[in-house]
Amino acid sequence: MTALFRTLAHLPLGALQAFGWLLGWLAFLLSTAYRRQFLDNAAQAGVSVSQWLGAVGEAGRLVAELPRLWLGRAVPVTWQGAEHVQAALDQGRGIVFLTPHLGCFEITAQAYALRFGPFQPITVLFRPARQAWLRPLVEQARKRPGLATAPTTLAGVKQLIKALKAGQCVGLLPDQVPPQGLGVWAPFFGRDAYTMTLSARLAQQTGAVVLLAWGERLPWGRGYVVHVAPLGMPLDADMAVAASQINQAMQALILCAPRQYLWGYARYKAPKGMAP
């Protein structure tokens, strides 16, 4: 499989994404459970068929483009809102980047490392791959100049805090369901979802700036646009309120580009051993 990944990494981005579009539709049509979860989540958000239909193929593109992003040549990336990043760096403050399962969330950290990494690196929280063969490949691909990774453990959290206190940046997916005891129930598109409190705690404990970021996937393999915007509100000291504020911000981003959201993600699942 590693050899296959390395081979695919040399293909044009457009070819990989075209193949990914087909994979996305095959998964949608062949898996009843995945299709039901996809449709239920889209219905919960109140988006129309015309809004979510494109997300079927985009989910496959998300997977198919990984070999190129991890092991291949650089891809075209432009920015909208880079001035918000520069302003925070000029103040000497750390940055907490919040990125939902929207667009290509792999590209955001890579693009930051390439443009701003020489001045202040970014550390990204990630869960190690479940497949043993994939773990060394992922670790190798994500460790690059200006970009470090932190595991979803206590040691990883300490690593994030240390980075922020040094004026560096961290990146998280705040709509990722955390383990039991590391989140609160907060509304997400009108339904309670178990939501991490880590992002709010990091910002409050270190005084870091909170920025929203997501990577828009352009059609026909033309690359990506990294969008950055301020959170737009101070986070409440109450973790339940802060989690709701972050969920509201994620909802607003998603509704700006529903055709690129990962509607098949199990956002409303309860952690193991915990009742919804």
Set down the secondary structure blueprint.
Blueprint: H1 2-8, H2 13-30, H3 32-45, H4 49-64, H5 66-71, E1 77-80, H6 82-90, E2 95-98, H7 105-115, E3 122-126, H8 135-142, E4 147-151, H9 154-165, E5 169-172, E6 183-188, E7 191-196, H10 198-206, E8 209-217, E9 224-230, H11 239-256
Parallel strand pairs: 1-9, 2-5, 2-8, 3-4, 3-5
Antiparallel strand pairs: 6-7, 8-9
Helix pairs in contact: 2-3, 2-4, 9-10
Walk me through what this model shows.
The structure is a single chain. The protein has helices spanning 2-8, 13-30, 32-45, 49-64, 66-71, 82-90, 105-115, 135-142, 154-165, 198-206, 239-256, and strands spanning 77-80, 95-98, 122-126, 147-151, 169-172, 183-188, 191-196, 209-217, 224-230. It has a domain at 75-257. It is globular, with a radius of gyration of 18 Å. The protein starts with a helix and ends in a 20-residue tail after the last helix. The strands form 2 sheets. A 7-stranded mixed beta sheet has the order 1-9-8-2-5-3-4, with helices on both faces. By secondary structure, the protein is α/β, with parallel strands linked by helices. The longest helix has 18 residues, at 13-30. A hairpin with a 2-residue loop joins strand 6 (183-188) and strand 7.
